[in-house]
């Protein structure tokens, strides 16, 4: 009787391992659109940042996360899963967002994530939803219209060691670049007249401008680093639904309304309203 018992135990353990393996696979690879269409209370779990001004930040008074990314996600949730669907927000950072997505802790990432060839090896991206890129911030009385106006008599403020500091030297080789420790120091230097312009991503500059209305972005971006919504590979139906949702939002003006709510009339080149591109 001992041998049959051992065989039965081995078979039971083997079956359990297979079941666990199958369950694990189904959790991480289950078609999200199938889940949303069959659940009585559909919910999309979005990975978002909670410390990025204008895009995703925690409002202490309201006790909730707000921002451009948040509003876009809420609108997409309704369009993809129905008016009663819920958007759930999970805090992510630049380091944790892809691991959380791969482990199925979240369904999608909408967190100022630049579309890049390296990241495409791990995830799939939606169409562009924000045309991010490097730009210039100037104060009152400064007549710079863009990076092309920078010359020997200008000083540009940048964060020490940043890619922005390197790129401005390539795009305005005659201008002097003064590098500071962080964005706060760079903006303080701009206000004190140590330079005529500050440079970094337009997304960051828009946040500074929102809090300091006398300062505005001069001209257009001079690099292209667009943001996309990331989903797991194999979730083509979900990705296509996101893309269709973005197009419909532009078509009926919902996207433009959200953009204006957070960014006003500045940096219109960052809006996709006039340039909704097909995802790869």
Automatic annotation (TrEMBL):
<dbReference type="InterPro" id="IPR001638">
    <property type="entry name" value="Solute-binding_3/MltF_N"/>
</dbReference>
<feature type="signal peptide">
    <location>
        <begin position="1"/>
        <end position="24"/>
    </location>
</feature>
<keyword id="KW-0732">Signal</keyword>
<comment type="similarity">
    <text>Belongs to the bacterial solute-binding protein 3 family.</text>
</comment>
<keyword id="KW-0813">Transport</keyword>
<feature type="domain" description="Solute-binding protein family 3/N-terminal">
    <location>
        <begin position="43"/>
        <end position="266"/>
    </location>
</feature>
<dbReference type="GO" id="GO:0006865">
    <property type="term" value="P:amino acid transport"/>
</dbReference>
<dbReference type="GO" id="GO:0030288">
    <property type="term" value="C:outer membrane-bounded periplasmic space"/>
</dbReference>
<dbReference type="GO" id="GO:0005576">
    <property type="term" value="C:extracellular region"/>
</dbReference>
<dbReference type="Pfam" id="PF00497">
    <property type="entry name" value="SBP_bac_3"/>
</dbReference>
<protein>
    <submittedName>
        <fullName>Glutamate ABC transporter substrate-binding protein</fullName>
    </submittedName>
</protein>
<dbReference type="InterPro" id="IPR051455">
    <property type="entry name" value="Bact_solute-bind_prot3"/>
</dbReference>
């Amino acid at each position: 009787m001992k041998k049959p018992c051992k065989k039965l135990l081995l078979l039971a353990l083997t079956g359990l391992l297979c079941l666990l393996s199958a369950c694990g696979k189904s959790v991480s690879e289950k078609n999200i659109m199938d889940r949303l269409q069959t659940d009585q209370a559909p919910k999309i779990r979005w990975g978002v940042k909670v410390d990025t001004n204008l895009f995703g930040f925690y409002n202490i008074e309201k006790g909730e996360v707000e921002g451009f990314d948040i509003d876009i996600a809420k609108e997409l949730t309704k369009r993809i899963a129905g008016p009663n669907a819920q958007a759930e927000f999970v805090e992510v950072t630049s380091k944790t967002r892809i691991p959380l997505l791969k482990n199925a802790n979240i369904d999608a990432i909408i967190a100022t994530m630049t579309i890049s060839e390296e990241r495409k090896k791990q995830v799939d991206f939606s169409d562009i939803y924000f045309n991010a890129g490097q730009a210039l911030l100037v104060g009152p009385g400064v007549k710079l219209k863009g990076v092309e106006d920078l010359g020997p008599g200008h000083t540009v403020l940048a964060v020490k060691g940043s890619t922005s500091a390197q790129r401005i030297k390539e795009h305005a080789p005659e201008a002097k670049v003064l590098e500071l420790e962080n964005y706060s120091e760079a903006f303080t230097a701009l206000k004190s007249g140590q330079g005529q312009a500050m440079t970094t991503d337009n997304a960051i500059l828009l946040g500074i401008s929102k809090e300091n209305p006398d300062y505005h972005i001069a001209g257009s971006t001079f690099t292209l680093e667009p943001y996309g919504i990331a989903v797991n590979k194999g979730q083509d139906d979900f990705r296509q639904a996101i893309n269709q949702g973005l197009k419909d939002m532009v078509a009926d003006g919902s996207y433009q309304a959200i953009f204006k709510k957070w960014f006003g009339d500045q940096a219109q080149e960052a809006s996709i309203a006039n340039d909704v591109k097909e995802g790869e």
